[in-house]
Amino acid sequence: MSERRYDPTHDEWVTFATHRQDRTYKPSTADCPLCPTHPGGPATEVPRDHYEIAVFDNRFPSLSPTPPAPDLAGDDLVPVEPAYGHCEVVVFTDDHEATLASVGERRVRLLVDAWAHRFRALAADPKIGYVLPFENKGEAVGVTLHHPHGQIYAYPEVPPRPAREQRAARRHRERTGRCVFCDVVEHESKDPAGRLVVEGTHFLAGVPPWARFPYEVDIWARDHVGTLPELDAEARDDLARVLTRVLAGYDEYFGFRTSYLLGVHSAPVNVPDDERGLGHLHLEICPPHRGGGKLKYLAGSETFGGAFLTDVAPEVAGPRLRDAVERATVPA
Ligand SMILES: [Zn+2]
Ligand SMILES: [Zn+2]
Prior knowledge:
Elements: E1 2-7, E2 12-17, E3 54-57, E4 80-81, E5 86-91, H1 105-123, E6 130-137, E7 149-155, H2 160-176, H3 180-189, E8 196-199, E9 203-206, E10 217-221, H4 233-254, E11 260-265, H5 273-276, E12 282-286, E13 289-291, E14 294-295, H6 300-305, H7 314-327
Antiparallel strand pairs: 1-2, 1-4, 3-5, 5-7, 6-7, 6-11, 8-9, 9-10, 10-12, 11-12, 13-14
Helix pairs in contact: 1-4, 4-7
Bound molecules: zinc ion (2 copies).
């Protein structure tokens, strides 16, 4: 069964992809579908004996350009639609044991190009409203394939969290005439409380004053840029530099390979200019770690209230991560 159903009580769509229950689950290293295909060995998803970055369609997609007809007949109250969209896998190294924190700045730079390239290609589908590159990293966040990789989802409309950002940005613009993210960049670039973690020339990384996870780091474009493809070469270099340092800092601070959720928020696509102009490119990185081996779970307040409770002050987390970045060995 593959379909999406509208929840009229929360004004959002929920996607069902029950075939995903059969997807490859924590395969052994020898059976890794993302490793290169070695001569004489079993064929993997990547028919090369070596690669730097590989992008391909997810074999167990939640959203598909050719979705099957829904099982459930929808009605006025609960509309049901085919789960249209695109799900791509982005493998950023052929080294099964590497991580995005360890592949080095040059490879991360290549990943930024791959993201931008795929963003443009997916946004060219007029039925797509939002493109979201993300990485789920580590068992603590439920990863089923250990080989380092990320994903890109292209949704038919703007999903709830970016839609909420768009509403907040519109309200801020109506009130002040300015972009809320540009104002945040200006606010945080003064670093009044030590929350900044890495200051690049085009990007600024810091624990936001409102961090939902104890060691959340957001990476904001300093300029008002909506999407990855709009970044020039110099800005892409800087994003790779800043991101590599933030991730190296996490591993240095926690003392192990940090699990995290990383998402790239951009302007919506195939929308009127006025709506697109509200978007401001930024990355959000949310590790579930609270320190001392403890994990943050989405519990009652977060799940039912949508209200996050955090037990580390951003003004404490910021300097800890900044120190760790300075100590960390950053791979070139
Ligand atoms: Zn592998
Ligand atoms: Zn802006």
